[in-house]
Amino acid sequence: MTKLKNWIVSNPDLAFAILLSGCVYGYFAMTNEFFATHRTGFAIMERFAVLGLVGLALTLCIIAGEIDLSIGSNAALAAVITVRFTDSLGAPTSLMIALIVSTTIGMIQGYFIAYLRIRAIVLTVGTLMLLRGVALFAAEEKTVMLTDFRVPDFISTKMLGYFSPASLLVIAMFILVALFMNFTKYGREIYAIGGARKEAVAAGVSLKRPMIIVFAISGLCAGLGGAIIGLRSGTAQALGLQYVLLAGTVAAFIGGVSILGGKGGVIGAAIGTLTVNFLNTGLVFNVTPAFMVQLYLGILLIVVIMFQTGSRVFDDSQRRKQILADTDRMAKLLTARRQRIRSG
Amino acid sequence: MQPLLKLTNIKRSYGAIQALKGASFEIMPGEVIGLVGENGAGKSTMVKIISGFDSGFTGEYELNGEALHFSSPIQAERAGIAVAQQELSLIKTMSVAENIFLAGDKVPTFVTKRSLSKMSKPFLEEVGLGHIDPSISTDRLSVGEQHLIEVARLLAHDPQLLILDEPTAALGESDSIRILDMVNRLAKRGKSIVYVSHRLDEIFKISNRIIVLRDGESQEPRQAADLDVRSLVELMLGRELNNMFPARVAKRHDGAPMMKVQDLWPDRILERISFDIYPGEILGLAGQLGSGTGDILAAIAGATQSRDGNLVFKGRNFLPKTPKEAIDAGIAYCSDDRKHDGLFLGRPISDNLSSAALKRISTWGVRSDRSELEMVTDNAVKFTVDPARLPQEAGVLSGGNQQKVALAKWLAINPDIILVNEPTRGVDVGARAEIYQKLRELADEGAAIVVASTDIQEITNLPDRVITIYRGIQVGEIAFEDMTAAAILKEITDPFDETGLHEGQMA
Amino acid sequence: MTSATTTSNPNFVQRFARDHSPLVIALVLIFMAVCIIGAATAPNFLTVFNFKTIIRDAAIVGIMAIGLTFVTLSGNFFLLSMKETAALAIIAFATCMAAGLGFPMSFLITMAIATVAGAVQGLLIGLGGNPIVVTLGAAGLFFGIGSWWSDNLVVSFRRPHGAEWLGTGSTFGLPNITIAFVIIAIVAELVLRKTSFGRQVYLIGANRAAGRATGHENFAMAIKVCIIASVCSAFVAVAFSAQVSSAHVNYFSSEFGSSGDMTIMVIATVMVGGNSIMGGYGSTLRSSLGAVFISTVDNMMVLHGFNSGPRVLAVGLMIVFSIMVFALVRRGSRAEE
């Protein structure tokens, strides 16, 4: 029991995320008889495939102290490319092309951010629009559609009850990224430049490598997510997928990232995404109109922010207490010293 | 025996300013060299050159007899030279072990957190922190322990030469002792340590030899055993005093004090502080780096939190909680870090000069360009800043001119009390004299000025009386007649006579 | 003192050449070159009518950009909720008008709602909340409230409704919305240059700690600038609603305008003008010019018969290009960031 308590104290954000996730799931499970079923589980995991990737990508960006506003456009572009070329080149090839394109876009952005020292948020405002234009161009202003629907069927095949090839692929991605972030030097560099950039650079951590890696992963995730959506539904719109930014950001924050950077993790990203998915699916089940989903997401984000701000304020007051305690301790030592000198 | 590192005839200039004028440095393997010198003597320049952060120098640089010229600190690190800066560069959100193995060649690419913890143990032992769990987050440690972790990180790269720049500045008693013990341990193992510090008692405790820098030139290394506080101070302060400091007259406190500071207890201060501030005088707060003199000023100005305290000022009893309250009451405060909160570097100088007194140049919210121009020109001239430069960005000014602007802006509020922390940090000699002159003039006009400084010469020759602070406690007050550098130094480094460093006695 | 007169009132070209580095001047020259090429190849570019169109198209985004500029200059980054504040405002306005409250009353109520929306965000930001995240959440909140209030339906009100002058009217041959844009641009610039509030915006944006040390706290400033930005969004919403006599929460969403996402356009406009995201550097004049710049490029593409794809691409390219140019310029002149 104390072990659990210790874990909660040392990982408050993750504990809060799990709690929130449980609450949301529990709420919908209780208010809707269809929620806690097999099929719903599958639907949630399907949604998880795309949103999970975006949540993962944004989590990484925010950990690194930046954000990728262009992720939706990048994903839409990948969707368009994949769907457009599947008929002529086959799904695997067009998927490859889309992924290469999206990852390269990510790397280029990471390069500019690192080398030109542009804030990511500023650059991605522009690239969001730029990529949208490219997507419109590639789609020739239409909604692109598949003619052969065997691929979408395959991607959505149910495996192991809740999963499909798509969601399994995404889970594999999560595991890889988690290993990368936790067990390699490069992953730790990303945490370092996010949490304390000046200090990290002063300590000799390179800024360029982790930045390019983070945005390359972000591009890859965006591309994969877009491709999956495109192949799964058989259509792609150049102006679509804009909602993923808000949903992904909420997921990342629920999962415990801090806007200051340096905090969070892949597990948190997964839990955050699941929570957003529970919310989404649950609202759909309760026949809530789409616009209300935005409202709830907004409220959820504000709740998480208030919790984080609260815990930051708490941390600050604890720190002050510690400083004062240290000071008092030194004062005691000093008095002892004085007495010693006076008597000795 | 050949020196591990030998620098000869090093010259380094920054534009018109000569930071080093042919200084030399050397250190033997397993030796501890104490590097001392006043602010502006060239210590930080020398440290930067030794550690490879500065390659723009002329002169000889020999490591183990081999002539080298590092173009980056990474090269110096690879050659075995490591420097622990004053500012911590730890990632507070990461664990101790992760901080120790953050960057560089010795950091393994694929490793679990547990192995990292195991690998970090020996280095933690070496700095005296063997009892700490390497997997805890660094921000849970005390500042002193964090400094030790910083050194542990450097040790992980197995350096031959370790430079510690003011390692105990922010530390309390027990942590400082830990650092000194660590230095002794490392020296016994054959490492060479350069110990840069203002704390002369520590310098004497652990150095084999002492190198003094003065005005960009170095003295021959002297055995620590051959020196005492007085002779060391003499070596450090060679500057011509004549023209820099305005003449002083012994002041009598006729009237009531302008402000009574009662039982002020800022957060990092150990005991309540009380003293009086009189109009027409410059009061000095003397204390070493980390003693808390800056905290005291900041507390009076509402810029930092205090647990307790009261100011009796202009018939009121209060303690400002924000800088705005202090400003409205007529208290001006200039911190020791002008780049951080003393200047708006990207804005024109005129904007800076009027920033504290926007209300006085506006009616109904509308600024009058003419009033502003008048006010800022006036104040610029008073502090000998060229009015023709007013539209320029404050960031293009030299250090001395920047400091003048940072100070001059407070004239606009007609302050009764001016609190200044480190009035001439990073300021060239010419500007220093101008600043001292102006502060004296302001005092003569009736203001009360309180100056906190770690510069021994400054704190000895500028104020009319001095209050001494040692590690967060108020030691005493030294009157005008008794103000000598040695006397002040004694009170702020060794008030309880523990190290036996009396003036004139051997260490 | 001759130097005094020069420093307080150098003429515009002198000041421009002095204050701006070669790169920016190059950007301006490129823009002029592009205009010339566009004018040469498209027959209708250099007409008065076309210029009026350019400015009118710039007006809506321009007014919002001016409001947002205050937030950016003060160092509080952006509001990601401009679009949703406009959506909420448009519903509020149309609902009031449809209820027969008349223009002045509806206008006041809408502005009041916008003020509250801005104040809430400013409060959270002033207390230390990160502007990106706070406004992202607020965006969802406002959009949801607007949708719920209108049941996601179109709200219409009948003509005549007393607001024609704003929506579709013109004076001296210029659409009133354009005149509003120009007036707001001038007023905003005057506020920034001539008032102590304007100076505070720059000071707090340039260095928050120094601002605090000289008695200017960001708490009050955040609230004020957020209110300004929200009110500008609401004004635009009212004008648009007056134009079409109706309102729907989605009027400002992706389908609106050629370049899509309004929030992004507004932010991009502020950036294209060369305002620093860190604050303390720039002006509303720059944002206004940025709006005109973007509108010009878009306009030229339309005249050449391009579809929305290439148009968005061109605008996006231009935005990225300007951002990089300004980043390079700033990196050259000041090392800190």
Features:
heterotrimer, A: 344 residues, mainly alpha, ABC transporter involved in vitamin B12 uptake, BtuC, two-stranded antiparallel ribbon, 14 helices, 2 strands, C: mainly alpha, two-stranded antiparallel sheet, disordered N terminus
How would you characterize the overall build of this protein?
The complex is a heterotrimer of chains A (344), B (507) and C (337). Chain A is globular and about 95 Å long. Chain A starts with a helix and ends with a helix. Chain A has a single domain, classed as ABC transporter involved in vitamin B12 uptake, BtuC (Orthogonal Bundle). Chain A has helices spanning 2-10, 12-31, 38-63, 71-89, 91-115, 120-139, 150-155, 165-183, 185-195, 197-202, 208-233, 244-254, 266-285, 290-343, and strands at 144-145, 235-236. Helix content of chain A is 79%, strand content 1%. Chain A has 344 residues and is mainly alpha-helical. The model of chain A has no long low-confidence stretch (mean pLDDT 84). Chain B has helices spanning 43-50, 73-78, 96-100, 113-126, 143-155, 173-188, 200-206, 229-236, 293-300, 323-329, 338-341, 349-354, 369-382, 399-408, 429-444, 456-461, 485-493, and strands at residues 5-14, 17-27, 32-37, 58-63, 66-67, 81-84, 161-165, 192-196, 209-214, 217-218, 222-223, 259-266, 273-277, 282-286, 306-313, 316-318, 331-334, 362-363, 366-367, 417-421, 448-453, 465-470, 473-478. Chain B folds into two domains: 5-236, Rossmann fold, CATH 3.40.50.300; 259-493, Rossmann fold, CATH 3.40.50. Chain B has 507 residues and is α/β, with parallel strands linked by helices. In chain B, strands 3, 6, 7, 8, 9, 10 and 11 form a seven-stranded mixed β-sheet that branches. Chain C has one domain (25-34, 46-329): ABC transporter involved in vitamin B12 uptake, BtuC, CATH 1.10.3470. Chain C has a two-stranded antiparallel sheet. Chain C has a two-stranded antiparallel sheet with strand order 2-3. The chains are: A mainly alpha (344), B alpha/beta (507), C mainly alpha (337). Chains in contact: A-B, A-C, B-C. Chains A and C meet through helix 6, helix 12 and helix 14 of A and helix 7, helix 13 and helix 15 of C.
